[in-house]
Structure formats: structure tokens, C-alpha cells
Amino acid sequence: xxxxxxxxxxxxxxxxxxxxxxxxxxxxxxxxCTLVDVGPKTREAREALRVFLKENxxxxxxxDQIFLTxxxxxxxxxxxxxxxxxxAQVIAHPNAVPYIEGExxxxxxxxxxxxxxxxxxxxxxxxLGHVERxxxxxxxxxxxxxxxxxxxGGELLGSCGEWRIxxxxxxxxxxxxxxREADGLMLSGDFLIKEISSNAFVEPPARAGEEREKPLVVxxxxxxxxxxxxxxxxxPAHGEExxxxxxxxxxxxxxxxxxxxxIYGLLADGAKHVFELSALLFPSIxxxxxPLTFSETLGxxxxxxxxxxxxxxxxxxxxxxxxxxxxWAR
Length: 330
Description:
Layout (H helix, E strand, L loop, with lengths): L7 E7 L8 E7 L3 E4 L6 H13 L9 E3 L5 H4 L2 H8 L2 E4 L4 H5 L2 H16 L10 H12 L7 E2 L12 E5 L8 E5 L4 E5 L25 H13 L5 E4 L8 H22 L7 H8 L8 H17 L3 E6 L4 E6 H4 L1
Parallel strand pairs: 3-4, 4-5, 5-6, 9-10
Antiparallel strand pairs: 1-2, 2-3, 7-8, 8-9, 11-12
């Protein structure tokens, strides 16, 4: 027998200027009110949110909490303005804080990490401007905002205890979802999307000198864990409701394995670097969508290394890392 729920969930679709399209944000309404993500810093997002609150009988001051699933600007860009208007508590993962608060030391570390990563994996010099474009995007579509409460997963969202915070890394290493046990509902952010696969983005480690996480490997582990939970449906941040999330997870895991096998096949005739493989996998978009295609390619190479099928070697001749099959190495 399904337990009674004490909060209502309302969805707002906000347009974004990004290729992913509109973003879904959510209002959890009960004794207190929580916004789950806020959208980018655009006039359209601001107006849509104002009207949304009014239609639900609320003003800005009725919002008590802002829960950020992760730091990407289509989810968090408007948080500084909304926090100021509402005086709400902003909640996020600790490793998302430097992005959200615009910490200068971390952002310098971020840019240096990507410049080195791109260079040592074959990205041509003329394309390294993508690193600076990230900062320009942050400046255009977000403002720095304070984070008042950090959570790592496992905590309750509020005093009523109806929503539990679930750590769901992969898309970012800071990604959080909300789960309501009473009816098996998960507000899943970008963890799982019905219409498209959610990219597992490469990110710098939280501190300089540490090893980066292997985003696809981490993501697959998180999907396996969520698959074991009694989640009946998901409301994602993009697209339609997911009615059978465990089935979609199985499908996504299989598709990732198929792509890894395709990359393995591309290495059959010799070693290649990440940028070279990206061009073969995504010939029409590998330059335009460099951060996405690079992450996708490197993530699957991480998976192949984890599976013991591929190894990474440094080429003194080319001054890049090359990936080769274990069979080719012999």
C-alpha cells in the first residue's frame, strides 16, 4: 500500500539558449517551499519563474530553499538573483560550490586542467579557445551566488523527512537527485533523460594535483545503484517523465558498452589519441561540440581501460597520449 505524500510537485519548463533545449525546474510545495534548480540567467527564465510562482499562489518570499542538482548554468545560472529575491537557503554538493560561488582560484585551476588535458590528448592549438569560452558562458548566463548548505547524499531535504538527497555522480561529479520513498518518485536532474543519453562530462579534480575522476565509470556505478532502488518514476530536468527508469538504465548501460566496442574497433589498426577518435566518432560535430565529444570519447576509453581491453601510452614522437588495444601492444 502506497504511503500518503505530504508535498506537491509542480514542473516549469524554462527555455534556454543551449542546444539541449528547455530545462525543467520543479517546485516542491508543502509546509515549506523548495525550488529544484532555477534555470539560466536570462530574461525569459526570470519571467517564466515569476509567472510560475504567481500561478501557484506564491511570491518570491515564499521560497525557503533552492536545491541545485548540479552546477551547470542551465540549472544554476539564475540562483544569485533568486536567492536575493527569496532570501532562501541554497543547497548544493560541496564540489559544486567553487563553480556556483565563482571562486577565482578554482576557476584558474579549472582552465589550466583543461588546457593541459586537451593538449596532451591531441586537440590542436587553434581549438584551445574552448577553454576560455567556458568562462565567457559562465559570465553571460550566471552570477556568483553563496551556497548556504552543503550536502553529499543521504541527508533529508527538510524537517518533514519526505525527500532524501541521493548522490548520483556521472553527468557531473557533484550531481544530486531527490527521492521520495512514499511513492518512489525521483527528481533526477540530468542523471537520466528519456530522449537522449546524459553525457558524463570530464571535470577537473576538486584540488590541483589530484587524479581526475573517470566520469563514465562513475556514472555506470551510480546507474547500477539507482537501478537497485525502488524508483517507480523519474521527473528529469530535460524532456518527458520516465515511467520505467530501471529499464531505461539497462538500455543506457548497453548502449555505452556498444559505443566502447566501436571505439575498440577503431583502435584495431593502431594507436590513436582522443581527438582523433572524437573526429571518427562524431565527424559532423566534433569541433563545434568539443567539450561534449571529447568527454564522451575519453569516458569510453576510461571504461575500456577499466575492462582491461585498452592501455594508454605516452608518445614522445607526437607529444600526446595514445590509446591502443592490449592485443596491438603485444
